[in-house]
Amino acid sequence: MSIQAWNFLDEPPSTLRGKFDIVHIRLIGIIFDQGPLPAIRNIALLLKPHGYLQWEEMDLNQTLIATADDSVPAHAVTRMDAMMKTHRARTWVPQIPSMLEKSGFHDARRYDVQSDMALLKFSTDMHVQAWAEVAANQPEGSERRERITKMIEEVREETGKVVGYGAAKLTFVARKDG
Fold first, then answer.
1. What's the rounded Cα separation, in Å, for the pair 92 and 128?
2. Report field, pTM of the whole predicted structure over 0.70
3. What is the C-alpha separation between 46 and 173, in angstroms, rounded?
4. Measuring CA to CA, how many Å separate 130 from each of 11, 41, 149?
5. Is 3 exposed, middle or buried (0-12, 13-18, 19+ CB in 10 A)?
6. What is the pLDDT of residues 15-49, one digit of tens each?
7. How many angstroms separate the CA atoms of 115 and 61, rounded?
8. Are strands 163-176 and 105-113 parallel, antiparallel or unpaired?
């Protein structure tokens, strides 16, 4: 086994082209403003003919905010949900199968997995950590960094009172043309 770094926004080096039967990618959508077509083309270059791509993304159109009962507020978690849906709005995610079909794949399929109540605490922590990374990449003292940091603190306080957040997971599987 060997490890090699590669930026999938660039074409892969010749040593990686056509070498893999299966490529699995996960949660890469957050980096794209306009959609992933260049990355899809580059990832396809990794696959052997008839190789498979498996791709997992969150579906921010199918989110769940859960509380122990109606008396527990979820204001900060609701704000985080709204921010998730507007930060690099990924309206293209449900169209991944058609993008794959247009990029040299066939038999593209979509599988939806709804949020699991048992995993909401973990899911909430994962989303908060993602926002912490976004905040850390904002200029020191900027209004955006301060707003995100405050939201994170409020979400952590609410989730200590049995509030959870989750998003459905979409898994796409497609086979590269031969």
1. 23
2. yes
3. 15
4. 27, 26, 12
5. exposed
6. 999 999 999 999 888 777 677 888 999 999 999 99
7. 12
8. antiparallel
